[in-house]
Task: structure prediction
Amino acid sequence: MRIRVAWRGWFIGMAAGMLSAAAPSVHDLNAQYRFSCAQCHGLDGNAKGPSGVRLPGRDLADRKWLAKQKDADLIASILNGKGAMPAFNYKLTPEDAKRLLTGVIRPMARRAP
Ligand code: HEC
Result:
């Protein structure tokens, strides 16, 4: 009984933390990306972690691939999810998704070696 109550508290705490941290009132796209996307796509978008470990997300910094993708399709994937990627429409507006794509992801791919 005690344990179940504790878990419920933990879950509510996590959910509240995620919601408040994701609030787009912080107009910091890079922070948004680091918070919501980097654990799968890497800080540089190349789907690699700090020690080069392969993360579960797609390599978004793959310039050749990215150049062939339409903004509208990628925005739809961010909002609705795709394959193993979860949907983000519960915390990102279409405008947020577009800003992440054009303000963080496409510039990251341009910087990639
Ligand atoms: C739990 C891991 C995970 C998280 C978190 C995650 N992604 Fe993904 N993402 C993936 C995977 C896996 C794919 C490959 C999906 C496929 O093609 O089947 C992907 C694919 C994509 C694509 C390509 C979609 C397409 O149409 O091919 C974009 C763009 C993208 N992610 C952006 C983001 C953004 C922006 C965030 C943060 C808001 C994010 N991802 C968070 C795992 C993740």
